[in-house]
Design brief:
39% helix, Aspartate Aminotransferase, domain 1, Aspartate Aminotransferase, domain 2, 386 residues, 15% strand
Amino acid sequence: MKYDFDTVINRRGTDSVKWNVGKNELPMWVADMDFRLAPEIEKAIKKRMDHGVFGYAEIPDEWYASYINWWKTRHDFKMKKEGLVFCTGVVPAISSIVRKLTTPNENVVIQTPVYNVFFNSIINNGCRVLESPLLYKNGRYSMDFDDLEEKLSDPQTTLMILCNPQNPAGKIWDRKTLEKVGNLAKKHSVTVISDEIHCDITEHGKNYVPFASVSEVCRGISVSCIAPTKAFNMAGMKSAAVYAENPVLCHKVWRALNTDEIAEPNSFACIAAIAAFSEGGDWLDALRNYISENKKRVYEFVKNEIPEISVVKSDATYLLWLDISKTGMESTELSAKIREKTGLFLTAGSVYGEAGKYFLRMNIACPKTLLEDGLNRLKKGIKNLH
C-alpha cells in the first residue's frame, strides 16, 4: 500500500499545541508530526467509535501481546507480560517514578543536552538536577564516563534518567555504551529510567538497543518508558507503557502510577496501540523512508545554502540538532530573531541544558513543501543576521 505523506493537512483551529501560532508562522518545534494517522489505526478507532458507548476500559490481553510481539520482532527483546504496566504517557510516568523512587533533595542525573521536560520532572518533585554533559566532538556526541561516574557516585544520587535514543541530537547508544552505564549505575546503587519513546524512528541500518536487553544488570536496575505515540503520531491518545523486569521495582512503579491515577486507559488508548503495533508496520517503514529523505534534504540544503551553521548527523527521531556556534549568537536570542524576521518557530537549544546553548532543534516530520518553506525561512533568518 502506498501511503501519502505529501498532502499538507491544515491543523490550524484544531486546538493543536504545535500550530497555535501566528497566521504567517511555521512551527517546526514541538515533537509531533504533520502527517495523518496510519489508515489501519484510523480504521480501528472508527470501529470502536461506531459502538457508541464509552465507559470505563480495562487493559485487554491483546495490548500486552502487541507490545511483546513488536519488541521481539522489531528490537529482538522479549518482554514479560508481568513487567508491563499501562500508563497515560511517558512524561507522567517519569514524574511518578521520580516521586516514588526518590526523597526530596536527592540527585537525579541527566546527560545534557537532553529533553527539557526531564528538568521539570526532577525539580517539581523536590529533587536536584545533576547534569553530566555529553562530549561533543567533530559533530558527534559521546558519553563522558569519568564525569558520569563522579555524578553517580555521589551519595545523594539515587536515580538517573537515560534518553535512548537521545533527544535532541538523535544519537542511538550502542550496546557497549549502555552496558557501561548499567554497570556504573549498579556499582553505585542507582536506578535507571530509560526513556525510549523515539526508538521506532531510526535510520536504515541503525537499530536501537533497548537498555533492558543489554544485560542482567541492566534488566535488574531499570524502568523502560515506551509508547507508540511518537512513531505513529498519536500523542493525543494518551497511551504508553512502562517495563520493569525486576518484580520489586515493577511493583513500586505500578503503585506509583496507580497512586497518581495515570494507569487507566481512555476508550481508544489500548485500541490505537494494538492497531499500531499489530498492523502499522508497513506505514511506519514508509514513514521512516520519508523522514530519512527529509533529513538528507536538510543536510544538503544547509551545507550548500547556510554554511554559517551545521547539522548534527541523526541516527534516530525526526528532530534535527542545528549547531549555530559559528554565528556567535546564543540559541535563545537567535531563535527569537529568526521567528521575528521569518515566522519560523524552532526550539532554542538552551532549554535542553547549558550544553544546548549554541544549538537549535528543528522538527522535520512534515510534508516536503513545508520542509522547503522552513529551510528557506531558516536561510533568510541566518542571512539577515548580517
